[in-house]
């Protein structure tokens, strides 16, 4: 009896032990031992779930031994862990992060190890560290093959993205796809972005006629299912200053140099007595602000239940300009709502809507007569204000476009407001096992208003004088939508064969209208009364214009993917586009491509290498298109201006605009790429390398010269856009990243990337064999060209060979009289390139190239205990710039390099003499072309995170303070404000920036240096 009783008691205690519950405290780490916040932790077959905090910790209550918990996190392999005690530590597989990470590739996704195209990713962590004002800035120096340049340092100015070089003299910007629809990258709040994926090669062929310049895929942040509400608040405030001042001559230096110039020209000295002039006015100090404010706030709330996820965010940015303060300010507000829901086991729906509002004011910049151009050219002998306290009038001897820049700022009045709502609605429906039908409706709708007021004012007989005040107001409405419907089938055949197929269609339409009017005689000559409603003068001094547009595209696409054992990878795709931009004979285009890969490290013969963990070779080839030109280029439209005499009075009418070209069609880009992906030393080192050839045919070249009989110079008119050229970019990319955890307290990430590019024009079919562009000085021929065998936009001018030291050298050299004057000792010696014994226009040649030979980035992140440090740099090597910010008149100011001028034999062999007499020195030549290679420290940041054990007591999961400096310093030999000032002139289509004329510096508004103090709060 006793043994039976003992057995029953033992069974009772055993049963009690197995039914006992307890709380589980866990920690989640990545492969390097660093904590992972935000990991979803769920009890299997239960609704109980939580997420890890900033320290990677979580807590689950009421569990028993043997309970299985599931841990999942984007980019990591989902893991199941059986509970055996009240404390557990889970390490997420790091190779899952690098190889099993899901990569968006357009109308679908792939695991990173299976990607066979040249694809690069920037994640939210990098964006958060860089603190870019505009999203595009996060791509500079972080991805090989991508170069980002600013059109201006002014707040809100646009940025130009070039993927693998410049391929056309029309629109070169890539297409941005935001959550599946075409959008504007520059309007996004950077903190709303989860990842940015760049498709650089034929992988982008799935986008057909909009993919030739590359495709940037943006995925915005979504809430995580089964997670508590997470509140993130980020803010920073700081001040800005110019990153550079140019060393101009002070008053005394200027007066002495001008005296020398007049004496050399045989004229009386303008400053017989220079005593007491001192340093005079520093005009750059007058126009550059100090401590110019910038502030940003950003808040987001995200979370989700078992079937619903949500994310809501808002941001506010207010930035004044370092030139003109609020006269060149930028303010941006954004709001976003993103929702996802599992309606059933088969149906998932999602939506993401973004609202953007910004205002921007601008000054005259990047041209002759701009604010900074004036600040550099006005001598320090002039004061900013006269004896009466009014702005000083600058005499015409300095040029009729040079005025007091302070008066210019004061009398600049303009305002631009922009409102946009965009987003998408979509669903995924699982029809049967392996087949999912997806649909998405994306839209953009925006309204903008612009007002410009020209105050009646005189600057002393200058081109900027305004005889009659005027106000111009305009409003623009732009809209587009896209509807995508596609099905994706995936299946595994046997043990080794994996297939996937996608087929679908896209409908895209964009339409809009614009209206503008100008009225004169503004009441009280005042900005406060600058409104067309208040214009009371007769109707004949009121002018107005309007336009409408409507463009559509119908596309079909298909993609097939196959892999054998995950090591032999093949993908083929084709897209058919039909567009209303082109005439009946060229509406339809086909864009095929094929990509392949071989995971060598999975082969049996490769063995178990302790050094090489992963090795993949890949290749791609395909055809893509570019249709980024204005509408209706194939037909004639009366959208030009016309003024004629009717009944003895001037009357307004319409004239033909751009001449039609019925044979116009899209550009065709043939892209070839071979590359390799390599991981070494337990995945601590990652290497990606590519060689590419991108040949762009049938370039859409606007304004091809035609006979003047057609009247292409009339207002609103222009020569036709013609497919008239071929350009090839070839190059090599290399990127290496190193990640190491040295101890529990110290870890480090280091990244380096470099891109080498050769650009060459293969064909120009416009009748002359070249296309000119750009401007230098006043009255000279365009300094840039597109010509066969040369880089697009190369500088076309005279080679130089030092300075004539004596008359004997002048006599022994071919005559330079054809350039405007006989040479004399101290003048520039030009090279007789064609050896015909005379220096003339036939000796012009290639004297520089604005396209860099190489670009590179070096990035460093370190963590030591609660401290974090980040450094991002970018370098551009081999790009040239034209120094065009100094007016070539006698009395203007100069940079102080002219103090090293030639003053007698042997004194200088690089800088010519100064004189009021006639010389050929002002002709465009190598003297004005400088090496603009540079290395820029883009961002440096130091942060400190308070211990979670302290912050969590008040409900804060993360509290981080940091200090940062953006655009800290630029190492360069270039004399101008910014060696990255490569923006080109606007084409006649008023849409694209031409590379023919890029790299010419008129006094570029410099990128500001920004000092920031910031706070990151997570609740």
TrEMBL record:
Could you name the domain of life of the organism this protein comes from? Answer: Bacteria
Q: Which residues form the TonB-dependent receptor-like beta-barrel domain?
A: 379-794
A single MF term (Gene Ontology): siderophore uptake transmembrane transporter activity
Tell me which InterPro entries the record gives.
Beta-barrel_TonB, Beta-barrel_TonB_sf, CarboxyPept-like_regulatory, Plug_dom, Plug_dom_sf, TonB-dep_OMP_SusC/RagA, TonB-dep_OMP_SusC/RagA_CS, TonB-dep_rcpt-like
Subcellular localization(s) per the UniProt record: Cell outer membrane
Q: Which GO terms describe its cellular component?
A: cell outer membrane
GO terms, biological process = siderophore transmembrane transport
State the signal peptide span: 1-19
Q: PROSITE patterns attached here?
A: TONB_DEPENDENT_REC_3
Membrane topology listed for this record: Multi-pass membrane protein
Q: Enumerate the spans annotated as TonB-dependent receptor plug domain.
A: 111-215
Keyword annotations from UniProtKB, A to Z? Cell outer membrane, Membrane, Receptor, Signal, TonB box, Transmembrane, Transmembrane beta strand, Transport
Q: What family is reported?
A: Belongs to the TonB-dependent receptor family.
In Swiss-Prot or TrEMBL terms, this protein is called SusC/RagA family protein
From which source organism is this entry?
Answer: Flavobacterium hydrophilum
